[in-house]
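The authors assume throughout that readers already know how a fold can be written as discrete tokens. In essence, backbone conformation is discretised, so a fold becomes a row of integers matching the chain in length. A single example would do more here than another paragraph of explanation. For illustration, here is how one protein appears when written out as sequence plus structure tokens:

…
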Amino acid sequence: MMVGRAFSFGKRDSAPVRACAGFTMVEMLAALAVLALLTAVVATGVTAGMGIYRQSLFESESEEVSGLIDLSLSNPLRYATYSQDASGIATYSIVYRDDSKNCRIVDTNPRLVDQDGMLYLENSDASVSIPLLNAGAYVGCRVSGAHMECTPAEISGGYTVSSKEDASLSRDFSFDYRLIYPEAGRS
């Protein structure tokens, strides 16, 4: 018996019959081209989706960090007191309550500073430095550009929160606290 040849009632057919049906080289190349095109479209969509996800995750984390900073600053700054002595030197008194201790900053120019991506309340000579949040609270964010201005009636300032992973993602936040007891008294 001959493989690959067909017989018909004893007559020998000279045309060979395909033993295996398959795709031609042109069909295979066309299929690969379509598959490559679909892969490129899907990869572009996934990349764009990941970018949107990364941005929305940063937005959420920065809002959370800002809310925690606002919560940490609200009572100490709102209940800060301002006083002025007879020579006209103004002094602010800020009491920061921590779970373990009370810290007091009495200074003519208290500051909000950023150090290693975290915020601290300090007096003007940096002898007292109080971290606002623990390091774990900053999640995937870092804080920079902190500043604080004090007037007899209010304390205001701001800072920038940026992503640790993507430097192009950043947001500016500001705060403004009116002192509840603006003038504690004059000496």
User: Anything to note?
Assistant: The chain has one domain: 43-186. The chain has a mean pLDDT of 85. Residues 25-78 form the longest helix (54 residues).
